[in-house]
Amino acid sequence: MQFFRFFAVVTRSSTPHTRAVSTHHRRAFGTSRTAKMADITSKPYPAKAHAKRVVEYIRSKHPKASGVLYVEGRMTKLLEDSDEPEPFRQRRNFFYMTGCPLADCYFIHDMDTSKSTLFIPPIDPDSVVWSGLPISLEEASKTYDVDEVKYSTEVNPTLAHLGAAKPKNTAFAIFEQVSDQITFLEFDDKNFSILKEAIEECRVVKDDWEIATMQKANTISSKAHVDVMKKVKHAKNERELEAELLKTCIAEGARNQAYQSIVASGRAAATLHYVHNNAPMEGKLNLLLDAGCEVDCYASDITRTFPINGKFSPESRAIYDTVLKMQLECCKILKDGVLWEDVHTLAHKVAIDGLLELGILKGDKDEILKARTSVAFFPHGLGHYLGMDTHDTGGHPNYADKDPMFRYLRIRGKLPKGSVVTVEPGIYFCSFIIEPFLKDPAHSKYIVKEVLDKYWDVGGVRIEDNVVITEAGYVNLTKNCPKDPDELEKIIASS
Q1: Separation CA 440–CA 404 (nearest Å)
Q2: Radius of gyration (Cα) for the chain, nearest Å?
Q3: The model's pTM
Q4: What burial letters (b/e) apply to 231-249, b meaning 16+ CB within 10 Å?
Q5: How is the chain split among helix, strand and coil, in percent rounded to 5?
Q6: Which end of the chain has a smaller Cβ tally under 10 Å, C or N?
Q7: pLDDT tens across 24-79, in order?
């Protein structure tokens, strides 16, 4: 799922990966690739390893750093004007440090002793009547990869003890994620900037547990996509297909979606962030399905485009083949250290070749690339990091870039080994985007409107896979989701 903004400028930490941290990250993508996924995910979430990695990052910036890392989970909050709680999803940075999905929790990590302490809510007798007994201290100690579990009433006394134990201690916390009742009075220094940066940078490279969990999410999502393909020919409305997708994900144990699904039929597929999912489908050519579940807070993100009646129209097949070639050619050059801007540029070059061959574009391909005319048909970035967020941290986008071909890239710079990225090229026929290009002589001289007019009903074609970057290439987590056009037609036609 690759969304972009025309007007908003998003800012994030621009701190690049340091060489020391990059080296540590490279070790994180371990050698146990042959281990079974179930064996890996049956083990506790690797919270201590994550805490160690975060400490290493902080000390790469502040070599003498000493003290504690303090992180809060998300607190229970009621819906406005209601006694019902808001849907709960754990704070990503807290989950990264603990693997704990519970509400109203706290975490302290002693940087010098490497001791991790998780604080969970004490038993509230009134809530037991409605919700049952919560997890006990003993159960939590066995479940989570921490050294000690205490009740949340012990957070401030523990902080006071740790702060007074050693002079020149620093409390590292995340700005605006510290509850009012928490105090760091015994600490000589407080740092509210580096911890968020450290966690977000460390999250870029995944360890085996994280990759295995994302593989599980992708396997479930792939099955859900295929089930939608089998139903698409008989569906009357997009909402029926969204229901089919959710049905499969829930039945397979993934109740939560990583993001709101895009179920776009016909010309609606040219709207990148189409979320209505309620339009009738009669007489339309294709369906673009962008959807993925999450498992244990880790996301999948798959897009497939396929013919509603089981047979691509000639125009749809021509665009599909071009987009598929864009993706396959880009994947060929993926590996540790590849510059993402180079991969994105290659996608545009392949798109231009395809559109020239179809007669939608005319002229010299190098001049078209230089003019950025291809942005009219491929306006978004090639992909993004994937993890606990669909658009995961650490990409360092630059939405102020004046080059329209790179402005909406969610990743800038080199891809490290062990990172998980989406590769999602697309070609779209969106009048809102293309019309200004047709009115601009600098671009219109390259566009053949008479040929273009034959393709509006194609809407848009996007193909998206999730891949793990390796030293020499990549591993496709989405390989179970069909994308060969002949296979797609066969699945739909035989349903």
Answers
A1: 15
A2: 25
A3: 0.92
A4: bbbebebbebbbbbbbebb
A5: 40, 15, 45
A6: C
A7: 343 344 444 444 667 888 889 999 999 999 999 999 999 999 999 999 999 999 99
